[in-house]
Amino acid sequence: MSHESNPDKPHDSPIDRKTFLRQGFFMMLKPLAGALEENVQKMTREVLRPPGALPELEFLAECTKCDLCMKACHQGAIRIADESYGLAIGTPIIVARETPCYLCDDMTCITACPTPALQPLDRREVRMGTAVINTKSCFAYQGQACDYCYARCPFPDEAIFMQDGKVPVVVPEKCTGCGICEHFCVTTTPAIRIIPA
What we know:
Number of domains: 2
Oligomer: single chain
Helix content: 25-40%
Strand order of the largest sheet: 1-2
Radius of gyration: 24 Å
């Protein structure tokens, strides 16, 4: 009687104790890693990173806090986060209301970074965040003539356009999150804000 293997029946291949324990350990760590990432994102969600920044958890792992990107920034847009930024302390950030990113042609901050924390990319591909308009406080939405955010956007009619020539509308997939609109918004509390990526 021949013992032919049945292709439909799964093979029960025994695994050694070491492999079993290792697999169990990683299965246990998976939800912890997910929770850690979620907590890091919550704690740093208001942080606007320089152009080309990796996703937050990867960025924090790669950034050495060397401040070379800050020193390389022609516009002085990059600053180092202080203790009020929690886990982001010592890492490069941009405070758009004060000094936005002007998307320099040569992207000196990315070139200066000695790690993969800032990835090379074209200025049109930058996605630091997305501009969001508060229509309740935006002058244009209250019937007043105002197009400061549109007029100063580096990509008008692409990242933002004036609907019917009256109110600004952001195109999220084209917005770089540079913060120029937030910086130049004339309302005391900016009616257009960058939500970091």
